[in-house]
Amino acid sequence: MLKIAWSPLYSHPLPEDHRFPMEKYSLLPEQLLYEGTVSEDNFFVPEMLDEKWILNTHDEAYFTKLKKQNLSKAEIRATGFPLSPQLVEREIQIAGGSVQAALFAMEFGIGMNIAGGTHHAFTDRGEGFCLLNDLAITANYLLDHGYARKILIVDLDVHQGNGTAEIFRAKSEVFTFSMHGEKNYPHRKEKSDLDVGLPDGIKDTEYLRILEKNLDHILRRFVPDFILYQSGVDVLETDKLGRLGLSHAGILQRDKLVLSLAQSIQVPVMCCMGGGYSARIKDIIDAHAQVFRLAQDLFF
């Protein structure tokens, strides 16, 4: 059975003029239920992740500042979020959701998180709507429990996974692959194991050609036994922040390439959502919903 992490806390409210579309975290499960892609049984409310697994990835001094609400104004500004205890609790639960979804993936082939993909969180700081790096926390959890020995992180958000790259820059067990807008945020890029910078306005055909070529290239260098997939939809042509030119059909084919790869080499995959900032919330929901439909079609 497809298992999907979701919690009401994912939709923690922000000021009305804030540009991060938190409502997508409640609208997406509603859409999936309405169209019959999933039932209530597919969802689970993640447990709050034990702090030791957060400290296995993030510096204790940084995490303590988060818990005590002691970030400086500059540090808060870098995250893009107004800091609150509820926001920190939300991030801890999202990380727990990705870890638990990965454990379900070991049983069912795939597990999913309605949120997550917080790839701009570094070891010692947050950036770009990310406070804790759920991808890195999950990868370290799997490695430390012996559930995986070689993990591939496929990050297809329009923004480079700079925090993930920093966290794993000296860890050969994790291969970080980021395919992103070259001229987009962050302007100072970190070095992933493989970075592919894309030109503004790239369309479906060329994007998919580049992705397929690089996935093939990775598998010649690194054969994973687990895949973590950041499936951000800010590559969509309608996205306010993305500057790329993909259609909904192109995103569907992108997701199919990654999930089919996991199937073909018979390794579990955990999929988390990442960004999406189109002016119409419907465009965001429709683009995100596709990967859940695809997971049901391919795995169940």
UniProtKB/TrEMBL annotation:
Organism domain of life: Bacteria
Pfam families linked: Hist_deacetyl
Residues annotated as signal peptide: none
UniProt xrefs under Gene3D superfamilies: Histone deacetylase domain (3.40.800.20)
Record CDD domains: HDAC_classIV
Listed InterPro entries: HDAC_classIV (IPR044150), HDACs (IPR000286), His_deacetylse_dom (IPR023801), His_deacetylse_dom_sf (IPR037138), Ureohydrolase_dom_sf (IPR023696)
Keyword annotations: Hydrolase
Sequence ranges assigned to domain Histone deacetylase in this UniProt record: 18-281
Entry's family note: Belongs to the histone deacetylase family.
Family annotation (PANTHER family): HISTONE DEACETYLASE 12 (PTHR10625:SF19), HISTONE DEACETYLASE HDAC1-RELATED (PTHR10625)
Protein name: Histone deacetylase
Organism: Algoriphagus confluentis
